Amino acid sequence: SLVVLFGATAGAYGAKLGSDERELILLVWQVVDLHSKKVGTLHKSLVKADNLDLSDQCREVSGLTPEGLGKAEPLDRVLQQFSQLVSSDLKVLGRSSYTLCSDGQLLIRQVLHPETSKKNFLLSDCFYSFYDLRKEFHTCYPSSAAVKDQTIKTMAEYLGLGTDEAEEDFGVWQVKTMVAIIFSMLSEGCNHVFTEPETVKYKYETGPCSKSETVDSETVIRARGLPWQSSDQDIARFFKGLNIAKGGVALCLNSQGRRNGEALVRFVNSEQRDLALERHKHHMGSRYIEVYKATGEEFLKIAGGTSNEVAQFLSKENQVIIRMRGLPFTATQEDVLGFLGPECPVTGGKEGLLFVKYPDGRPTGDAFVLFSCEEYAQNALKKHKEILGKRYIELFRSTAAEVQQVLNRYMSTPLIPTLPTPIIPVIPPPYTIATGSIRDCVRLRGLPYTAGIDDILEFMGDATGDIKPHGVHMVLNQQGRPSGDAFIQMKSADKAFMVAQKCHKKTMKDRYVEVFQCSGEEMNFVLMGGTLNRSGLSPPPCKLPCLSPPAYAAFQTAAVIPAEAAALYQPQALLPTTRTPQASAAAPPAVTYYPAQAAQLYMNYTAYYPSPPVSPTTVGYIAAPPGAVAAAATATHTPILPQPGALVRMQGLPYNTGMKEILSFFQGYQYAPDDYNGLIQLSDQARSVLQAPKEWVCL
């Protein structure tokens, strides 16, 4: 038996049914016995919507009014009546089972399923399987119009049936005509058989996705504007009624590894994808969600993975995945299981845990956990921001695609990167920071943490022309982040005085900045880790009597790549071998390099000077044209390594080690007389080549 079903909403009608997110206001149905070709009673039921404001099209087509709908029953009761009346009609016809048959897929997929999902009540099983009369008609009559162009009226006209809609009420004519079309398809000339109904998935199935898979771009959409805490199940609920492919929800992460409010969703076919696009600007809670087309390549980039460990972890299907963030680096599997406790057992015990690690095996502080049911996952989420060790732990719902994406992000950086392209020397001669008691410098205090060199130059205004070359020095904290301070070397003490008077408490990015006149000596104290305040100078921790050089020239080569050629292209030069004056004379030249974007304008103001214990290694590169490399090689510059002495390579340093700790470590030994230039921190590229976590080279 078939139950022919027709419905209408308070908004759009026809091909746009359900696209405007309006509620159902009318259901009309009739039971058809396919064997005896008998029909049951035709039923028409109005549905009371929460919003009775009818669109003009709805009023014109249906003839319904808000007053009439106000006396109707709500949707949940109408659906209960539907089930009861269908059962009664089936008994009269001597039948027990039935399948729905609707005019197209919109009523079932785009209206009933989304609306009941939002109103938090379940549809009966009969709404998860139905026949699309348009597809069945096209199968029976291949010469008829394409499925997407079919309507009840065009199908009736093709068969020569009466099409006078004015004779019947809205909805009644549609159901009677659909029944007549079905009987025509069952006639001896056609003998059509209804065998393959459309299905709606009961729930979203999770699962891994391999980068080797082929994903059809006609099945993928991008959803934008999602709440940051939304999970794959929330997204599947937003697309309720449409069939999402297994593991087809991929939440996108930003550069910090946090969700950015976007997701890529893969459907089982292009028809489902097209229906999903009709949900553009539908709501998830109070937020509207934008839906756009996407490509299979974009989906694989986010959701695809190659790790066997991840594939094994995700091989347990229909599991709830929780992401843990902020774990202590020393946390073990036993610690995590103990943190979760017996009220939320992990699937498979230790096998249900996946720690995220860097390529060298160091932990990142992230982990994924599998739970067998929603109850256990909810118990785990209640532990959000509880303490493990000395750290609070964040817990979020996650997805299989997010597991792949996080692992791909952390594991994509190779231990030994490829060599960079040749680089162009911009300003060959080395430079130094001026010292002495002449107050030809200014200190900026209270800078926005997002302020850069260009912001400071704009802040200085006309005084920019009075800044010495390489005269802007940003002060970084021990974590390598901006401290809010900067020093600027002016061409004279008078210029510094004028700038301090003009720019003091001037606004930069909604913050006022204090500007003080100071000397080169005071600037060097701060750059070396000391403090400068109203009570005077506090020397840096590493300024010990036996180590104090006459002037702090530690940053003489701050913007210079220390022994770049030796570090990157000739790593053997960094081994602890004795250096003779003859060997030192052949050392590679000191060349200054600048970021490409800064070299165009303020190339003289791009040297960053962090305060210890952070190493001054912030360097940019410019890709060199082929002819420029030879010209740079033939230039003569001052060697950066002193002539006498020997190299000592230090391994196994703590990651927060700075210059002052190394100086204290070598207290009492003579090294690089009267200069700190003998202390060189290896760049990330040189360190990667040497396969060491963190090293310094001392002369």
UniProtKB/TrEMBL annotation:
One GO MF term attached to the UniProt entry: RNA binding
One GO term of the biological process aspect: RNA splicing
Localisation: Nucleus
Keyword Repeat: yes
Residues of the RRM domain: 320-400
Cited CDD domains: RRM2_ESRP2, RRM3_ESRP1_ESRP2
GO cellular component, as recorded: nucleus
Primary subcellular site in the record, as a coarse category: nucleus
Alphabetical list of SUPFAM superfamilies matching this protein: Ribonuclease H-like, RNA-binding domain, RBD
UniProt entry keywords in alphabetical sequence: mRNA processing, mRNA splicing, Nucleus, Repeat, RNA-binding
SMART domains listed in its UniProt record: RRM
Keyword Membrane: no
Domain of life: Eukaryota
Family recorded in the similarity comment: Belongs to the ESRP family.
PANTHER family the record matches: HETEROGENEOUS NUCLEAR RIBONUCLEOPROTEIN-RELATED
Protein name in UniProt: Epithelial splicing regulatory protein 2
